[in-house]
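Lab notebook: predicted structure, single chain.

Context: the supervisor wants predicted structures on file for every construct in the current expression panel, including those that have not yet been purified. This is the next one on the list. No modifications to the sequence; it matches the entry in the shared construct table.
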Amino acid sequence: MSSQFQGYQINKTEDGQTCELKQLSDDDLMEGDVTFKVEYSTLNYKDGLALTGSSPVVRKFPLTPGIDSCGTVLASESDRFSVGDKVILNGFGVGEGHSGGFAQKARVKSDWLVKLPDELNSRHAMAIGTAGYTSMLCVMALEKHGITPGHGDILVTGASGGVGSVAVALLSKLGYSVVAVTGRMNEESFLKGLGAAEIRDRAEFADKARPLSKELWAGAIDVAGGNTLANVISQIKYGGAIAACGLADSMSLPTTVAPFILRSITLYGIDSVMAPIALREQAWNRLVKDLDMSLLEDLSFDLDFNDLPQAGEDILAGKIRGRAIIKIPE
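Prediction complete. Output recorded below exactly as produced.
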């Protein structure tokens, strides 16, 4: 690839920010010891915030957004990677403080990269992306807590979105009975196709939570926060656990200590951004084994690279279902 390449670039203005598809050069690449050709990326909620400027997630300008990418190493000063290696990049502040995957080329620190498992190709990796990798971290947290399929139903909020849809598929394949919560009840057939045993309306979890409600769920994966998470906490069975990984509803948590003390429940915070490489590699290896790859087509769709600005608005409006795969133009 020549020193010239295409990529989106966000710049700060007096009125906020702009995001344009531009002709970039190697001079626009940021510091790092590995340069790679980006073959595929994907669209996440945080990317929507960056593309639209709806929230100040971008901390450095100019910057190429895109928290996920997968491709082939072009140059390496690292002992861990050689030219031709296939690599995955998720998180580590990429797309926020360091240029990311919405371009034909990226340069990053080798400590941020995971080798692409042999069983996956670049497109599969981005069908999974940060959302799927985060889902796996959540499942691993519930397993570490000791929750097995025999303990009862597992609740998944935001089940029609990227994290939630992969979580439903993973848990179902592992033998759990999954109850999927969504604000889009017209997605019932989609969610049941992923393995959900029951669908609940998000509105059931929208009101202020009671300190303790009826014990319903052995565990839960929550992407929402706010009243949704507070209601989930109040309904977890004795000794159960919740893996919380998002704040799509709210950053607040209007609850009490009662469920934690009287029912001995645990709330696990799941961080996918700065998780150590060993944990990331474990999660990706588990995904190869535990995610039904045939479901990836049902979970994902192709998004044109040129349509990213509009798609950023759509994902914030809740119009994106499942995983968006973006092929980066040659």
